[in-house]
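Escalation from tier 1.

The customer reports that the assembly of two entities below gives different structure tokens on two consecutive runs. Tier 1 could not reproduce it. I'm attaching the input and our single run for tier 2 to review.
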Amino acid sequence: MKQNTLVLAAVVIAVSAMIYAGAYKSRHAAEPEGADISRIAGNVKGKVAPDFELKTLDGKTVRLSDLKGKAVLLNFWATWCGPCKIEMPWFVDLQKQYGPQGLQIVGIAMDDSDDKTISDFLKEMGVNYTIVKGKESVGVAYGGVLGLPTTFFIGRDGKIVDQAAGLVSRSEIEQNIKISLAQGAAATQKGAIK
Amino acid sequence: MPAQRSVTVQPGKTVTTKVHFTIAQGYHVNSNKPNSDLLIPTTVKIQSTPQFVVSKLTYPAGEEFALKFAPEEKLSVYAGDVAVQAAIKASSKAKVGSYTLTGELHYQACNDRSCFPPKTLPLEIAVTVKK
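Tier 1 run:
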């Protein structure tokens, strides 16, 4: 065989938010539902977390508004996301530790894997918190989730305490959980927590 | 669309080529053989045509990489400049002339804190058949 090795193509993978945004936009364009979801942008701290309605793997509906009075850690993730996998055991521990105080972790799966793949992955990871299947419209509502993981910490009053784009340390996550549990606590002491 | 050069081949012969791509500094993509079934491998596809058969794709080995928070978990990734080799055989009946093969590069990129959705980039390879 004649070896005539040539450089044929110079493909520059410019891994940037712009490229992601293109893919994101095209995927979102094919998704009509959720158009009425309110959107947040820019500095999200102090803004009311947009409500959403998403399904669990077994078809149950989860609405953020149903969790009113709880502190919510909202985590956008995917099975193909290595950094997401690292923080999941932390979430399992933190749900055990802070669940009785009113924390609810909600993982929004943003990948196209089938339900069985996701379900098997969750079993392997021992996930003990709520997982729902994501929609791009929810990511858009949260200001555009440019990479995974992206986590929002929501206080008991439904306002966003902080946002973490990408993997951060467990201690930073735990600190934000504590702040979320404290935020709006006074207003929910009369049995508003379900 | 990636830049391209032309490759020349005689009817009935095989030419070996390389598809090059460069990953931006600070980022990596999974290798063609990542260490988990859940991770999305980097793949190159080049469509065969009646005149040409893409007979073999050879991927480089991945580099070991570990995230800061999980140093014990080794990933197999590509970073920097990467070349995937492809063998293209021209049919013995291929007529002299210029052709374009099309294909795609599929990858899923991350940095040390975040991962980005899978993406597909188109490829075009110009092939000239000469006697």
